[in-house]
Amino acid sequence: MRQGRTLRLAAVTALAALAATACGGGDGGSDDDRPSASAGGGSAGTGLTLPSLKGEKLEVAAVWTGPEQANFTKVLKEFEKRTGATVTFVPAQDPIVNFLGTKIAGGSPPDVAMLPQVGAIRQAAAQKWLKPLGPEAKAQLAAHYGKGWQDLGAVDGTPYGVYFKAANKSLVWYNSAAFDNAGASEPKTWKDLISTAETISASGVTPVSVGGADGWTLTDWFENVYLSQAGPEKYDRLARHELKWTDPSVARALTTLAELFGKPSLLAGGTNGALQTEFPVSVTQTFTGGDQPNAAMVFEGDFSAVNIAATGAKIGTDAKVFPFPAVGGGPAPVVTGGDAAVALKDGKGAQALLTFLASPEAARIWAAEGGFLSPNKSLDKAAYPNDVQRTIATALIGAGDDFRFDMSDQMPQSFGGTPGKGEWKVLQDFLKNPKDVAGAQAALEAEAAKAYKD
């Protein structure tokens, strides 16, 4: 499927339930309630069988670090236990396609890699680096995934990728004590968001944390505003570069963003501070300091839960969440992303790991740890550690095939997925100078035209 997707939940009601659950007091995630990796659930009776791989050594490359790497390693340890293989996690640099290209040129590609962009799958397939899914992996995929997620891992009809990890990238997490002290409520529209930010600022707390040092967070800001304001048709056309970045719809979205980015007093650390703040810190600084944190709210996906938990804040009580607000009269947007496992080597080891990752058994292990969302429809929602994450997961699966994918992740990686270049760099420059909407548009179009031509 050439166009990725952005989760357009037929159930805005599910997201409303998300906010209601988050405000309901308990998070449903006490240690007593937390299911273990071996708990029963959707995996029962799936008939998953894996071959003996005793003596085989596999390498898996991913850009994950910190808690994500640690939790994925738990999944790999279970695979080792079931097969007898030895699996080594290989830390990869971003963009991972460049990292893999170097490994392949040196004759030492990993057996499996986790690709975080649809565009990266297409690029790797075009380079003939990828091995098609074997029959066992395809059977697991057919049994447990909707057609939309299957199509995202395919190129020209050939299935290569298993989307193991998904993300709802349209959530705003907030410090409930800071909101309560300011008398602030959850905003439903962009106009309300700016008003809420001003209210919180007047209470003595900086309202918004922005992880501008990581350009991908800025693409997510843009995509949510653009999808809601311009609509899905233009979103798809811009994603395919059938619509130029100089289009008036892009100007409207950037002008809307400037209503927030153009007020440094609303950003933790001001403009310079935002540009020096990496994503993990943007989250943790929102939930440390009690009712006087560095910021009262932070926009990003469900995976922020891991960073929130690291602060000791309790999701559902200390840390609550609301859907990204509607912009310009459009519906509230919901953008999804994901990481797909692909094989770069022939052999039963790589295919067995892809088969395992396509099963609910593998998804359940990480789900129990939090900060994870699976597109696997057979995963028992009880595997998630709290009601907030269960509601997010239910909404994702409930969307069926009616969704779209993160825009920047669909584009050539040189434009939409490279630190310090392309869209990431231009939007960082825009954060520095949000008055220059026309200049940002021109720069975006120049970078996009070059990337699509290449």
TrEMBL record:
Keywords: Signal, Transport. Residues 1-22 form the signal peptide. Residues 24-50 are annotated as: Disordered. It holds the Pfam family SBP_bac_1. It comes from the Bacteria. Belongs to the bacterial solute-binding protein 1 family. This is Alpha-glucosides-binding periplasmic protein aglE.
